[in-house]
Specification:
With about 250 residues, the chain is of the alpha/beta class. About 50% of the residues lie in helices and about 10% in strands. The chain has helices at about 20-40, 45-60, 80-95, 100-115, 125-135, 150-160, 185-195, 205-215, 235; strands at about 5-10, 140-145, 170-175, 200-205, 220-225, 240. Helix 6 links the parallel strand 2 (about 140-145) and strand 3 (about 170-175). The model has no long low-confidence stretch (mean pLDDT about 95).
Length: about 250
Amino acid sequence: MPDYDIVLLDVEGTTTPLSFVHDVLFPYITDNLERFLADNWEDATVQQHVRAIADQANIDVSSGISKAIAIDLAADSPSQVQRKVSANVSWQMSENRKIAALKGLQGYMWRFGYTSGQLQGVMYDDAVGAIKKWAKEDNKRVYIYSSGSVEAQKLIFGFSDHGDLLPYLSGHYDTNIGSKLESDSYTRIARDIGVEPERILFVSDNHNEIGAADKAGMQTVISIRPGNFLVPKEVLEKHRTTSNFLDLF
């Protein structure tokens, strides 16, 4: 593999098992949201997120989305709003919807879970070892690029089962910089970091993301982990793969 200066890492299926997100983080929201809203109803930030969810729900209703439930913040009682917010969040999460209103509320609620000790980020041992080696021994900067919000990323790495890993990371990107399936997003990341794309190594389990990064000129490696989605044979034949980050050295 040619030399590189920057490491850009995906999270789900790469540094962290897919099962952690789908079996731990998502159920934490759906199982506890209505009670969380009731217990923290007077919190100004909670109200901000409720308004964002309500605005999106009403847009969805106007757009003819059948699962969407209209929320009238002026007429509905607090308990009605809480139930409707919970219902809207549940259907959006069931469809893996990626919108700002949903991600904002999720991130705020997850922060409560992490800081209270109810949640702890799960990391692959080899990923942690590699991140530390890149950052401290090889003097390479490590960045995260995930569809999860920057706040959610910082929580997973800051409250991980390997301790606080944030000191080893140089920065975070989410879909505010662009879709992970578009090559322009990777070009923008390279420009923001201040290096040419070919000086960046991108690792992800998603072969479509790998294709987009490859098109932008980055070096790429496909992450093969237990429980990950299968990668087409013809794609595997064209790209380097790893099931252990320490094999990248």
